[in-house]
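Deliverable D5.2: sample structural annotation.
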Amino acid sequence: MRGAIRHNRHGRRDALMLRLAFEHGLRVSELVGLRWSAVDLVHHELRVSRAKGSWDGTHPLQGDTVRALKRYQRDSGRASGLVFVSERGAPVSADGFRRMLHRLSQRVLGVTWHPHALRHACGVHLINQGVDLRTVQQYLGHANIQNTVAYTALTGRPFERLTF
């Protein structure tokens, strides 16, 4: 998807939105509502304000994500307010992000992804990496562990890592 997204005029912004949505399991409303005040580029942290009564949290930012955020901040000329805005400074809407993801996933993958699929992919990725369910629950901000347990059904080979 990286190659395809580079060819659109909002490529860097859109790539960064996809990266943050996946790496931090953000809901679309959390993503488009993200403010620069929640991004700590010095300590490499993202303060996630969860929607839907979920738990807020502070997530570590990876080095390449920090570099992408710094580059985007420099290019956009904005260090305050909403992170993701249009060329005219208007907020990127949840619908706008959905449309971008639908177009991109259809073109690259031949299927239409919805934004919540990135959140699910994050949870499944963490479980596949061997992260325990309680940590995944906290990372995704799930108030109820049952919401996290549902991701285990999508992981493929649940017993692969067991050793005796």
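Annotation notes: The first strand starts at residue 39 and ends at 40. The chain is about 50% helix and 5% strand.
The annotation will be released with the project's public dataset once the embargo ends.
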